[in-house]
Design goal:
The structure holds two protein chains of two kinds. Chain A is mostly helical. Chain A has one domain. In chain A, 71% of the residues lie in helices and 0% in strands. The longest helix of chain A is centred in the middle third of the chain and has 31 residues. By secondary structure, chain B is mainly alpha-helical. Chain B has one domain. Helices cover 74% and strands 0% of the residues of chain B. Chain B has seven helices and no strands. The chains are: A mainly alpha, B mainly alpha. At the A-B interface, helix 8 and helix 12 of A face helix 1 and helix 4 of B.
Amino acid sequence: MTILTILIHLLLLLSMPPLLLGVISKTKARFAGRTGQPVLQLYYDLARLLRKGMVFSTATTWVFRAGPLVTLASILIAGLLVPLGRFNSPIHFTGDLVLFAYLLGLARFFTTSAALDTGSSFEGMGAAREVMFACFSEPAIFLAFLVLARLSTAVTVSLSPMLLGPLTVPLGGLPIASLGLVSAGLFVVLLAENCRIPIDDPNTHLELTMIHEVMVLDHSGPLLGAILYGAAVKLFILSAVVLHIVLPFQTGWFVADWALFVFEMLGVAVAIGIVESVMARLQLRHVPTLLVAASLLCGFGFLLMLR
Amino acid sequence: MVSVLNMLLVVVLLLNLFVLGASRIRALIQAAALQGVLLGLMLVLVHEHLTVRVIIIGVATILIKGSVIPQILFKALREAQIKREIEPIIGFLPSILLGALGTAASIGLAARLPLGAGHAQLLIVPAAFSTIFTGFLLLTLRIKAITQVIGYLVLENGIFIFGLLLIEAVPFLVELGVLLDLFVGVFVISIIIHHINYQFASLDTRRLSTLKE
């Protein structure tokens, strides 16, 4: 059963992420009254990009080429640490939450380094913004982990028992107030880390206002595909983390639980699509306020747990 | 029941932070009104057995704090023709941080108070302290007269939350009297705002200190 679990974990981790982005854009299209692109569009895009050639500016070095690959690799490894649904992750050990947070950090470091390597002023601006917003969202993630560590009864501090902690507590005994705060905070972090509206607009066409998109302007072909795929996997991982806190439910049957997980993930995608449809993008100078508020929410959640 | 009540109190705490971070006065008024409605709901929830008295006070609270006072303030806002607080004495992000510090301090303070057995797991006392503190912050850190009125409302909401603990002991008339006072207070202040605006074409309260005969 464990080998089967690992196989399903890998299968979902590798194949499902582009579907989430498809669901998000379909939701947005429905809200706007359009038909929208097919749900599987990102798969077609990736296939197309993989067949294309690449263009490199003479100003770039190996950092530019390594950036997308290191980013994708570290995000995929981070995906192996997160438990999906009620099942343990393939790799888990004491302290893996720090590795998880800094694998995402490593991914960000290489994305921004590759952007700086091009020497373009727009890309430098995007890199600066990306790093600044990450500074604000990292405390929120760690405060949320503190709450989960406090809730979990396991001896080891590791992502799998922590994230599965809310499942083990009976529904009546859950500290709903602090879990509610933490899930609100983490949802904001999810939107920020994945460059969604209200923090960043993935569809914007103006370099001045871009954050994530502007950093990858010079990448082309398979490397651009790696970036798009990596972003989708990151969305998948963080959504899985948020799900553990928002909907700690299980049915007890193997197949039903995996189905429930896939269904819930699609639900998160729809929720993100709805948020993107009903909200306008925040002014850049107001973004730190929102992210600090997210950290405060998680901090309050922790304070309430301590009481 | 305790967890539902705590959830509502957490929403009140979040509204406190929102009030400190929002610059649009419409949003401020709506947040204070929503707090008022939540208070009315909590008043009904906190009682084990419902009596006519509790329901009357709850409905009166929701009506006055959630509808009548916001209407008066919206009217004052329309007449004054202002939309946002532009230059607070301390910026919005620092005010949020101050508010968060205040909330953390009130949770710490409430843990040290010798509370009754039934009240210790409730968030009523920390929420009350935090809301009162938020009201003080708004009263001192904002310049426009109308924002200060909202600060006064938030302050009163905090006192009202504290009153939830004592509800059995306080007579009916006293509670209705408090609501009436609040109503008259806001009414008078909205008239004053109208007059300040009429005389000076600005709602900046700093100018009031330089009045001379």
